[in-house]
Amino acid sequence: MEKLGVIFPGTASFYTGMGKELYINYPIAMETYREIESLTGYNLTDRLFDSYCCAEFTTEEKKLSVLAAEIIGFKLWQEKYRISPECFVTEGLGIVPALVCAGAITINEAICIIHDTCNVEKTIFKIPEYPILSEANGYTEFEKEDIPCFVKKTLDVESLNIKECTTALINRQIDCLLEIGPDNRLFKEFSAMSQKFICGYFDTMKDRNYIIENISFKKFFNMKYFIMRLLGIAASTRNFSTDYSNYESEVVKNYGKLKELCDGVEKSGLEISGNHVCEAVKLLDSILMYKKVPSEEIAERYSMLTEETLICINNYIDMD
Predict the structure, then answer these.
(1) Where are the domains of the chain?
(2) How far apart are CA 196 and CA 173, in angstroms?
(3) How confident is the model at residue 215 (pLDDT cuts 50, 70, 90)?
(4) CATH T-level assignment (fold) for domain 4-217
(5) Cα–chain-centroid distance for residue 120?
(6) In the predicted structure, residue 262 carries a pLDDT above the cut 60
(7) Which residues contact 39 (CB under 8 A, 6 or more apart)?
(8) CB of 62 within 8 A of CB of 114?
């Protein structure tokens, strides 16, 4: 399993309607929104999920909405995947939900900090369960007593220093980065460092069903799902070749072998080995080569698959 860092973005990740699918489908989401609404007096969900609402959101409403979405997202992700990240990376407001998710403060304390940053000094912080890296603490380790200082500084940071953050993550030997926030804004910036990290995101405003599908199918680090997606790529990729002389042996039979491998994996219930994945990748590679699929299209499909699963297909190409 790769070492994972979880990114908590700031207020810039806000968008109207964020969290609606989680609110509808998961009791833990409804409970979290209700708790925040009861503590603040804001009727967040009515306004946030009303597609006809034209009223401008206040800065505090946006912050509370991001707080709720990131706490819910992380709770659901942990409940589903049972994976402990190596560290959190935060930007601006993201430090607050990160501290809640790390067990350092309560939701009530988080709301107090959002309402008035002076409350940082009054808050009694516990030791976070995960190291938190922010621009304000120089992406380094910190002592418990340092938390109030870097929280106040971080709340004023609107964008990450990607270069310095990357260096800190490399020093920690982080392989994967997952943006837990309500939009995949920072994911795009870290993707520019794709030669260093495998990057993915838990939610996106482009596809409101993405997060539900992710939770339902448990896509991240899921070798079974990964192999099934390889089968999907084999079936959906257009044939650019005009030579059909060996189509039966090079495409149809290899597709049949790939489907047989998928079916066998699904029925057996056994843990997938690297050899299974290598075999599936080789079969797909043979199909795409015969179809003469342009290298740019192959690269794009593989990149999307990596984002979707946090599994890098290149790790299984040309492996013996």
Answers:
(1) 4-217, 223-316
(2) 10
(3) confident
(4) Malonyl-Coenzyme A Acyl Carrier Protein; domain 2 (3.40.366)
(5) 28
(6) yes
(7) 107, 108, 111
(8) no
Q: What's the residue count for the chain?
A: 320
Instruction: Tell me the HSE value of 164 on the side-chain side, using a 13 A CA sphere.
Output: 12
Tokens of 196: 């260093």
Render pLDDT for 149-167 as a digit per residue (tens, 0 to 9): 888 888 877 778 888 899 8
CA distances from 267 to 14, 81, 258, 262 (A): 42, 21, 14, 9
54, two tokens: 């034209």
- CA-CA distance, 108 to 111, in Å (whole number)? 5
**Integer Cα distance of 295 and 317 in angstroms:** 14
Backbone angles phi, psi at 155, to 5 degrees: -60, -20
The CA distance from 310 to 222, in Å, is: 9
Question: Which residue(s) pair with 198 in the sheet?
Answer: 176
Q: Are 60 and 115 in contact (CB under 8 A)?
A: yes
Of 246, 245, 251, 247, whose CA–CA distance to 233 is shortest?
A: 251
Using CA atoms, how far residue 181 sits from 125, 173, 226, in Å, is 23, 23, 23
